[in-house]
Amino acid sequence: MALIITDECINCDVCEPECPNGAISQGDEIYVIEPDLCTECVGHFETSQCVEVCPVDCIITDPDNTETEEQLRAKYERITSDNG
Fold first, then answer.
1. What is the domain range of residue 78?
2. What's the pLDDT at 61?
3. How many structural domains comprise the chain?
């Protein structure tokens, strides 16, 4: 699944630089995650880095973007091959 940032976000700026895919950006009011770029850090790390650093635990799985580990890995492969 891709992740989403809830409205509990305090705009602390710690999640954006942790995303290896560049999926996190500042939205109108809070940070947002682009689901087409979010692999939950599959291919990069064992755990989602944004979730690890979030001080208010406002980053959760997106029920509207359910993906298997294999789908996340395929997305990672696509993203990294596009950038290479």
1. 3-82
2. 94
3. 1
Which is nearest to 27 in space by CA: 9, 51, 52, 2? 9
Which ranges of the chain does DSSP label H, i.e. alpha helix?
A: 49-53, 69-82
Distance CA 81, CA 73 (A): 12
Half-sphere exposure of 78 (CA within 13 A, CB side): 10
Q: What's the pTM? A: 0.90
Lookup: tokens for 7: 């409205």
Q: Are 35 and 62 in contact (CB under 8 A)?
A: yes
Q: What is the pLDDT along the chain (84 residues), one digit of tens a residue?
A: 789 999 999 999 999 999 999 999 999 999 999 999 999 999 999 999 999 999 999 999 999 989 999 999 999 999 999 655
Whose tokens are 């789908």? That residue is 71
Q: What is the CATH number for 12?
A: 3.30.70.20
